[in-house]
Amino acid sequence: MKSGQNTDSEKKKRIGIYSGSFNPIHFGHTKLAEYLTDNKLVDEVWFVVSPCNPLKKQTELLDEYIRLDMLILAIAQQPIFKASDVEFCMPIPSYSIDTLEFLSNQFADCQFSLVIGSDNALVFDQWKEYTELLKNYPILVYPRTGSDFDLVADKYPEMKLLDSPLYDISSTQIRNSIAQKKDVSQWLHPSVYQFIIENNLYQ
After folding, report:
1. For residue 136, how many other CB atoms are within 10 A of its CB?
2. Within 10 A of 26 (CB to CB), how many other CB atoms are there?
């Protein structure tokens, strides 16, 4: 290879796929995405709204288009963040292997990695075709309260453990606080907070 010549993988744009219910999206989600791009771990973060997570109960899950609207509001000022509805036209429940293979076929100039929490990493063997995921896609793992990184490292040495801050806030906590008439504005982008108030969501 000539000096200065790039391989195909080096030319590809590195995309972190951050899938979730985003019910609602909050600063914990967007701060993690900023950590990934600020530290050059990926070039862009694509937030993929999951209509149905096979490992989660679906109670209190808002319509996927409403959750997508909130996501778009939250990242409107961040050009390297993108909101994706790719799973809206895919079979339900949504499986990461299917989404990543679909995106890889659609965007051959991109290298996709999967962004998950340490809680999900510990049950990764419950994911569909998890060995194929490990083999074909980088897995970036961020810390979650109560989920030990050492256990993740022992179980899945292929995964990359991130030295990111612990964003100790959850969408469940936000929904419960709204239902209890508590102020949640400190956890949400102002436009998302306004959208929730105007549409009487999670009341």
Report:
1. 14
2. 24
Tokens of 192: 């998302």
Q: Which helix or strand (DSSP H or E) is residue 9 part of?
A: helix 8-11
Q: How far is CA 56 from CA 21, 50, 70, 99, 149, in A?
A: 9, 11, 20, 18, 22
**What residues pair up with 14 in beta bridges, in sequence order?**
111
pLDDT at 4 over 80: no
Which band of pLDDT confidence, cut at 50, 70 and 90, is reported for residue 98? Answer: very high
Average pLDDT value for residue range 120-149: 96
pTM for the predicted model, two decimal places = 0.91
Determine the Cα–Cα distance for residues 90 and 102; give it in Å rounded to an integer. Answer: 10
In this model, does residue 55 exceed pLDDT 80? no
Instruction: Kindly report the backbone phi and psi dihedral angles of residue 84, in degrees, each rounded to the nearest multiple of 5, phi listed first.
Output: -120, 135
> Residues 19, 70, 27, 17: what is their CA dihedral angle, to the nearest 10 degrees?
20
99-111 confidence digits (pLDDT tens): 999 999 999 999 9
Please give the helix or strand (H or E) that residue 70 lies within, else none.
helix 64-74
Counting DSSP H helices and E strands in the chain, the numbers are: 9, 6
For residues 84 and 120, give the distance between their C-alpha atoms in angstroms, rounded to a whole number.
21
Q: Mean pLDDT across the stretch 24-50?
A: 98
- C-alpha span between 184 and 24 (Å, rounded): 11
Which residue from 52, 75, 60 is spatially nearest to 172, judged by alpha carbons? Answer: 60
